[in-house]
Each structure stands twice: as structure tokens, then as C-alpha cells.
Design a protein that fits this description.
Blueprint: H1 10-18, H2 25-28, H3 43-55, H4 58-68
Length: 83
């Protein structure tokens, strides 16, 4: 299962998903890996991009992940996270 979301604090969001404090989709499907992300300085542009990505089919999303992260490794490992 692939999850698409928006946040202004990615490290905090990752910790939230991993500690299961977010009820719903991510908890139900045990979404814990960060496979792809984009950064924007403008919130409006970021929200527009999120909506765009949510409309894409899974195969297109897989291709997007492959272009940045061909091994599908957990990119959250690059962040200094403390649970």
C-alpha cells in the first residue's frame, strides 16, 4: 500500500506514523517506510502537488519512487529521528 500525504514537518510526521498515533489509513496498513518525498517552500504549491499525486495510479507512483529511490530503501533513515 502506498500513502501520499502533506506535512510541514517531515521528521515529526514520520515519528507519528511509526508510533501509530495517527488513526486510520497509515495505522490500518502499517505504513512505516518513507520511500519518496518532495520539498516545497510554498505550502499552496505543496498541497496542489499532494492532490496531483493522489490522483495518479499506483504504477505511475512506483515509477516516481524508482526514479529517486530504486532500491525502495527507507529514506527516513537519513533523518535524525528519536522515538
Amino acid at each position: 500500500m502506498l500513502y501520499t500525504g502533506f506535512t510541514d514537518d517531515l521528521a515529526k510526521r514520520i515519528l507519528g506514523h511509526r508510533s501509530k498515533i495517527f488513526k486510520g489509513f497509515t495505522q490500518k496498513y502499517n505504513i512505516v517506510k518513507l520511500l519518496y518525498y518532495e520539498e516545497y517552500s510554498d505550502k499552496g504549491v505543496a498541497l496542489y502537488r499532494e492532490q496531483q499525486l493522489k490522483r495518479y495510479r499506483r504504477k505511475w507512483k512506483e515509477n516516481l519512487i524508482d526514479s529517486m529511490n530504486p532500491e525502495w530503501r527507507d529514506l527516513a533513515e537519513d533523518f535524525d529521528l528519536e522515538l
